């Protein structure tokens, strides 16, 4: 199975360098053009299934990529970005100023600290693991699957493949509209390419 992983196009929160997980930021005009570029890149691939985060920036990206294809998009909250809770749509300096104690705890324990009204990276990883098990249940070995999601979730996909090692989270880049390919063969995941 070939799984094409796409991070959504540039969003307004990306431009403003804000932490944007559950916050529903829209694509910019540049983000829409980026999605159109990916549409052209992937236009000759026949997708057997498409999964997408239910956040607007991911939905719009998927809809642009698939505008010439007649395929249903399955929106899946397991693919949503980590929920930043009280930090949502705030810049780093704002977070430090408004929530000094919480931001210090978050920095000291980035994996397991659940941001108030949000979640931890470890909690997001549980969602990703559950989703990956869903992909593993697809019984068509030559199928092509498209997944449109977020930067943090893409990093967790790689962590899952590399022995569920969440410590590797910061070892990967996940640029807007980057296309990565992972494959599942003989009960084994491997990374074919990252961010092409």
UniProtKB/TrEMBL annotation:
One MF annotation (Gene Ontology) recorded for this entry: alpha-ribazole phosphatase activity
Range of residues in the leader sequence: none
The entry's keywords: Hydrolase
Positions annotated as active site in the UniProt record: 8, 81
Claim: Hydrolase is one of the keywords in the record: yes
Top-level EC class: hydrolase
Enzyme Commission number, as recorded: 3.1.3.73
Pfam family, one: His_Phos_1
Residues binding substrate: 7-14, 57
A GO biological-process term: cobalamin biosynthetic process
Entry protein name: Alpha-ribazole phosphatase
Gene that this polypeptide is encoded by: cobC
């Amino acid at each position: 199975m070939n799984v094409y992983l796409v991070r959504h196009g540039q969003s307004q929160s990306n431009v403003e360098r804000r932490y944007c997980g559950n916050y529903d930021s829209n694509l910019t005009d540049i983000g829409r053009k980026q999605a159109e570029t990916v549409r052209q890149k992937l236009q000759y691939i026949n997708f057997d299934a498409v999964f997408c985060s239910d956040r607007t920036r991911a939905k719009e990206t998927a809809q642009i990529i698939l505008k010439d294809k007649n395929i249903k998009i399955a929106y899946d909250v397991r693919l949503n970005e980590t929920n930043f809770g009280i930090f949502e749509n705030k810049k780093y300096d704002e977070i430090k100023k408004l929530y000094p104690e919480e931001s210090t705890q978050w920095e000291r324990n980035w994996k397991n600290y659940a941001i108030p009204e949000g979640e931890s990276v470890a909690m997001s990883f549980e969602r990703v693991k559950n989703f990956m098990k869903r992909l593993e249940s697809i019984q068509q070995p030559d199928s092509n699957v498209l997944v449109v999601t977020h930067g943090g979730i893409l990093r967790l996909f790689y962590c899952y493949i590399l022995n569920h090692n969440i410590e590797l989270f910061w070892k990967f880049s996940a640029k807007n509209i980057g296309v990565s390919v992972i494959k599942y063969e003989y009960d084994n995941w491997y990374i074919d390419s990252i961010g092409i």
